[in-house]
Specification:
Length: 331
């Protein structure tokens, strides 16, 4: 079974993908993403791999005969891809070179445009799940990219808020947010030539940083070549900062928010950005989304953003110091 079912209370589509339950358990000493597996080239740096058990497909089956005048279903149309970051099975993002990160950004952009070319796809969502805590079963460094035939509810709310702000003020909501964060300064973690990493004023997670381009662009594909280099460095250094926070490979969900595709013109009101959702609230304690967060969408952050920003800035300096010391010649 693979279909979309309409949620009448939230006005959102739910993906039903029971076919994913049949995913086999991988052999202990074998990885399908490693060179030599027969699934990927023997020589690659970054690589697009079609998901073997997709929740969405461009040739979806007919929905089960369970709908009626009240309950609505739709074909599970879309695309699910895996983005392999490196051939190295245990490599992490902070270990990748500047050049390698640029190739990864280029692949994200290439696949974004390929999905966008399908006019039935309305939203393209690159993301990464990292760590056992968020359910990752494949340790090989990778992310994913989904192309939906609808705009998911959270992104719909973001786009509506941005459009409303533009109509009321004549300005981009995201640009105004960044301007306000820079003016305050307390939640800014670090900046490079083209991007700012900060903990937002309203952050839902203790270490839920955002990455914003300093220039207004609705899509990551609108970035210049120089900006794409800076994006790769910002993503890599954010992961490195989080790893340095408690000196272990920090779990997170990294979500790239671009404007919707194949619809109206979003060029003035939507601003590409990246949101991180790390599930830890301390070195040993996990932040669980309990009843308030899950049942009411009323989030509660158990930490103060101005204080956790200090922790993150210290972790960033620690990460940069270690990176510099490893780069220094010996002797």
């Amino acid at each position: 079974m693979a279909e979309l079912r309409w949620h009448p209370l939230t006005k959102d589509w739910i993906m039903i993908a029971s076919n994913r339950q049949n995913r086999p358990q991988m052999p202990k000493d074998w990885c399908p993403f490693c060179p030599g597996s027969g699934n990927v080239p023997d020589d690659y740096e970054v690589f697009k791999y079609d998901n073997d058990f997709p929740a969405l497909s461009q040739n979806p089956p007919e929905p089960d005969d369970v709908s009626n005048d009240f309950f609505k279903t739709a074909p599970s149309y879309g695309k699910c891809e895996v983005i392999l970051y490196s051939p190295g099975h245990t490599v992490t993002l902070p270990e990748l070179s500047d050049e390698h990160m640029k190739k990864l950004v280029d692949l994200w952009c290439e696949r974004f445009e390929a999905m966008r070319a399908d006019e039935q796809i309305k939203y393209v969502f690159p993301f990464e799940n990292r760590g056992d805590v968020v359910g990752v079963t494949m340790p090989h460094p990778h992310g994913q990219m989904y192309g939906y035939s609808f705009i998911p509810k959270k992104l719909q709310l973001e786009t509506e808020s941005a459009q409303e702000h533009l109509e009321q003020t004549g300005r981009c909501l995201f640009c105004d947010m960044l301007e306000q964060e820079l003016a305050d300064g307390r939640r800014i973690i670090f900046r490079n030539d083209h991007f700012t990493v900060f903990l937002p004023f309203y952050c839902e997670y203790p270490y839920g940083v955002y990455i914003f381009p300093n220039r207004h662009v609705p899509y990551m594909t609108d970035l210049s070549q120089e900006e794409k280099v800076s994006l790769g460095l910002a993503i890599r250094d954010t992961a490195g900062m989080l790893d340095a926070l408690f000196d272990y490979r920090f779990p997170y969900m990294m979500c790239m928010h671009n404007a919707p595709v194949n619809g109206r013109d979003y060029s003035k009101d939507f601003h590409f950005h990246i949101e991180f959702f790390p599930p830890m609230r301390s070195a040993e304690k996990q932040k669980f989304n309990a009843s308030s967060e899950t049942g009411a969408w009323a989030h509660c952050n158990p930490t103060c953003p101005e204080e956790t920003s200090k922790e993150l800035r210290a972790a960033y300096e620690k990460y940069k110091s270690k990176k510099t010391s490893r780069a220094l010649p010996k002797g």
